[in-house]
Design brief:
Blueprint: E1 2-4, H1 10-13, E2 14-16, H2 19-24, H3 26-31, E3 36-39, E4 45-48, H4 50-59, E5 68-71, H5 74-78, H6 91-99, H7 103-122, H8 128-154, H9 160-188, H10 194-198, H11 206-229, H12 232-255, H13 278-289, H14 307-327, H15 332-339, H16 352-362, E6 370-373, H17 376-380, E7 384-387, H18 388-403, H19 413-430, H20 436-446
Helix pairs in contact: 6-8, 7-8, 7-9, 8-9, 8-11, 8-14, 9-13, 11-13, 11-18, 13-15, 14-15, 15-18, 18-19, 19-20
């Protein structure tokens, strides 16, 4: 600390500031080397670095902190970051940028994103340019969530509730953005094929993988809703249940030691199959976008040729769930979509196995009723083995991982067919990891792509 007893000019140069505003803008105070002045009881003034102030706050009660002051032009200095163009930044540079700005500026950026989404909504044509904007928007909200979560859990416990409020505020704006994107996809689903744009997306990093998964996931749920609404459950699925699907579900229940009679969909899927409301899809979509939030690099979690790979794959699921849970503010629909997206009906990894074993330990005669539920309460209580949006995410995640292989230069029709055949052979027939009914509907969704448009598309 540097003592400074000179009072001349200080009264004009410094203005009072609250400790919470200092902590909230910590990265900027460090970035621009702006010191904080504290006024001691004896009238002396001490210029302190931000790190000293934060340590002071963690060791003292709020009402014991001496008056704090900062140079009166600090807000003007902070404004420099407001005009930064991040649209051409890499994911890594975006992460650094969003980590350097405060909640107010993140929210302001999210408001600008909302305007972009509204502009796309007003356009009569949804084209590749519009989709590229959505990809960029998806990257931003993914990174903003990650940066905010990390800021929250790394901070001192005494101000965790303060940061939790920031998380909730940002989350509200993010959900508004996702709702806008879903509405765009929904209003254009009969005019353009979303998959055409997805297949023309570069395979750059984990963020881009998450962006593609989010787009395919939300596009599929909209297709699934239409599949339900036009009566295809009765026309197709019910007719095939006993001959095609029932044996798969018997294997699934056998994995958990459950001998269950079944002869209709309602015996395996709670309340049969139902359409997803928009408000639920917003939460599911957010879970899909953030499913790899703790993942720092691409992991081939479909190829466990070493124990290290298996451990890394397992860690990224648990860490992603842990980050979002510790941060606070994320609904269970989001948390469980992230937590269960590699369960694979007991053949994968995640938190459900422990939940189920604890349930049986406390209630030895407990019997799970369904394979799939739409209700977070029923997955929490283990009344079902799987959570619907997580089962959808499993399929989309595996599909994207296999299709956008690092060696693939062009996505062709034959590539999508090979991937779907491999998924059915390895993850349904060989071992029932993916849900067979949802998978068949997903195949219908993928096959709607126009055959002639696939052959000329470059991915990277």
């Amino acid at each position: 600390m540097i003592k400074n007893n000179r009072k001349e000019e200080s009264d004009n140069l410094y203005i009072p500031i609250d400790i919470k505003d200092i902590i909230k803008n910590k990265s900027k105070f460090i970035k621009y080397n702006i010191a904080i002045m504290q006024l001691n009881k004896d009238g002396t003034r001490i210029i302190s670095p931000i790190e000293q102030i934060e340590k002071l706050y963690s060791n003292l009660k709020s009402n014991d902190i001496p008056p704090l002051f900062v140079r009166n032009d600090y807000k003007t200095i902070f404004e420099k970051d407001m005009s930064v163009d991040i649209s051409r930044m890499s994911s890594s540079d975006k992460s650094k940028h969003f980590a350097s700005i405060d909640t107010y500026e993140k929210l302001k950026h999210l408001e600008n994103i909302k305007k972009k989404i509204k502009d796309i909504t007003r356009n009569t044509v949804f084209d590749k340019k519009s989709f590229d904007i959505i990809l960029d928007v998806s990257s931003d909200i993914n990174i903003i969530n990650k940066v905010t979560v990390l800021e929250n859990i790394k901070t001192h416990p005494s101000i965790s509730e303060f940061y939790k409020k920031d998380t909730i505020e940002i989350l509200k704006s993010v959900k508004d953005v996702i709702k806008g994107v879903i509405n765009i996809f929904d209003s254009n689903k009969d005019k353009v094929n979303l998959l055409e744009f997805v297949y023309n997306t570069p395979n750059i990093d984990t963020i881009m993988h998450s962006n593609r998964v989010f787009s395919i996931f939300t596009g599929f749920i909209l297709y699934y809703n239409n599949f339900i609404n036009i009566g295809n459950i009765s026309k197709i699925v019910r007719k095939k249940f006993n001959s095609t699907y029932m044996n798969y579900y018997k294997q699934i229940f056998k994995k958990y030691g459950i001998n269950k009679g079944m002869d209709k969909i309602e015996d395996v899927i709670e309340k049969s199959m139902c359409a997803i409301e928009k408000k639920e899809l917003v939460l599911y979509g957010l879970g899909a976008l953030l499913h790899d939030i703790a993942k720092t690099e691409n992991i081939d979690y479909l190829d466990f040729d070493t124990n290290e790979k298996k451990l890394n794959a397992k860690k990224h699921v648990l860490n992603s769930y842990g980050l979002l849970t510790k941060s606070g503010g994320y609904p269970l629909e989001v948390l469980f979509t992230v937590a269960f997206h590699h369960e694979y009906y007991g053949n994968g990894y995640g938190i459900f196995k422990n939940m189920y074993e604890n349930k049986l330990s406390n209630e030895p005669h407990f019997i799970t009723k369904h394979a799939i539920t739409y209700d977070v309460a029923n997955i929490s209580s283990c009344l079902s083995l799987a959570y619907f949006p997580a089962k959808v995410l499993e399929i989309v995640d595996v599909y994207d991982q296999l299709l956008f292989n690092k060696d693939v230069k062009n996505i062709k029709l034959e590539d999508t067919i090979k991937v779907l055949q491999l998924m059915h052979s390895k993850y349904i027939d060989e071992t029932t990891c993916l849900d067979p009914i949802i998978f068949d509907i997903f195949v219908d969704y993928i096959q709607q792509i126009r055959v002639d448009s696939l052959y000329s598309m470059r991915v990277i």
